Amino acid sequence: MSEQSEIFLAKSTIKAADLDHRQKINFNIGRYNAVVPQGKSQFVNLDIARERAKNIKWHAIETLDKHLEEFEKQFSRRGGKVIWAQNSREALNEILKICREKNCKSIVKSKSMVTEEIHLNEFLKKNEIESIETDLGEYIQQLDGQPPYHIVTPAMHKSKEDVAKLFEQKLGTKSKLSPEELTLVAREILREKYTQAEIGITGANFIISDIGGIALTENEGNGRLCTAWPKTHIVIVGIEKVIPSITDLGQLWPLLATYGTGQKITVYSSIISGPKQLGETDGPGEMYVILLDNNRSTILADTRQRESLYCIRCGACLNACPVYKNIGGHAYGATYSGPIGSVITPHLEGMEEYKHLSFASSLCGNCTEVCAVKINLHELLLFNRNESVKQGLASISEKTAWKLWKFASLNRRIMNMGNGELKSKVVNKLFKDWNKHRSELHFSKKTFNQMWKERFKNTADS
Description:
This protein has a six-stranded parallel β-sheet, with helices on both faces. Helix 2 (19-40) runs antiparallel to helix 12 and helix 16 packs parallel to helix 19 (377-390). It folds into three domains: 1-41 and 305-394, Fumarate Reductase Iron-sulfur Protein, Chain B, domain 2; 44-294, NagB/RpiA/CoA transferase-like (Rossmann fold); 399-461, no CATH class. The protein has helices at residues 3-16, 19-40, 46-62, 64-77, 88-101, 113-117, 120-126, 136-143, 160-171, 179-196, 222-228, 249-261, 296-301, 316-320, 322-327, 338-349, 351-354, 366-370, 377-390, 396-409, 412-415, 421-430, 448-461; strands spanning 81-85, 106-109, 130-133, 199-202, 206-208, 213-218, 232-238, 242-243, 268-272, 286-292. The model has no long low-confidence stretch (mean pLDDT 94). The chain is α/β, with parallel strands linked by helices. The longest helix has 22 residues, at 19-40.
């Protein structure tokens, strides 16, 4: 068992028994489920809209090299600078290089899962550069010293009382502030940070190939402030986020809004195609886009797993997953949690350490059912399991157990032996892990095979 697997089991065991945690996350996911149908009402045929979006991403991923090169060509024409980063280390070094060139002391950052993936804040802190999260949920998590809990809603596991208590501890505010008052406190602090920062860092929801721009969507306006105030704007984005044309946004943006937050369209939707041009009064003087691979090309090379790169990070699969709703986002021990995280993390971080995530699923298929771009997530989890076995990562005890199970299952005499109490005792003693969080198994006194024979015999006699 890997170290990450042991950590996962320990954390998930604690969270699964935490009724307070379960109440909070189910309350917040319940609010999400209540508004999503309103967003879906904008589509005349939702199934066709999802299918078209999947086709857009399919085309983009199948011709990824062409569209990334086109993006670089168009973006560079307007003075933007593209940096290709093979891994986290290269991306971090390039960011540090830019920071030192600009004599940067502070950075404002909008919500970005890719920056979490490369552990940017921790890296900048080691190099004595202040990095402030400006998304309210991310800011709350940063104050608490925690990573995001959810792809879309970073502080989903916290109640308003939890946030008020945190602000009291960290910022010295009153203990019983309302959500509106807490927001105003954060706003007052962050507004000053925007004016002080030398560099603004964002992610990107999409890379638009034909115009050489990035699409950024958010609900608080912090993303626009991060790109407008500082003199330098750095975008860090995974290479899979590319789409062929600006016209594709008409299909993807509404789906992302609906499946992400239940909105018909997100409040702030921006297209940024380079630094401030001659005659323009707004925008950064310099703009960089760092195109991050970080093992995405490994997924691209796997024709079975390539489909996972279609993901638009709406977070719908997390909200639908019964496992996620019981153990929460932090138990996964990875940047990307829930079903999509369980699919891609073993490839991004290593199958040996993270294969267990692909087994943390009931395979109910609800994640596939709710995916905005129809990714067959539960099938991809099965492919991961198959791949881990092919790589020889299954333990001897696991292999032996399945061989015995197969042998017994194919032998009708064995299957019919010791029914009822005897079989229950043997199985419950043999599979001890099953009983840790579940009641014991109880087998019927007769197997289906025996009952069928009895019924057939009675029918024949009559």
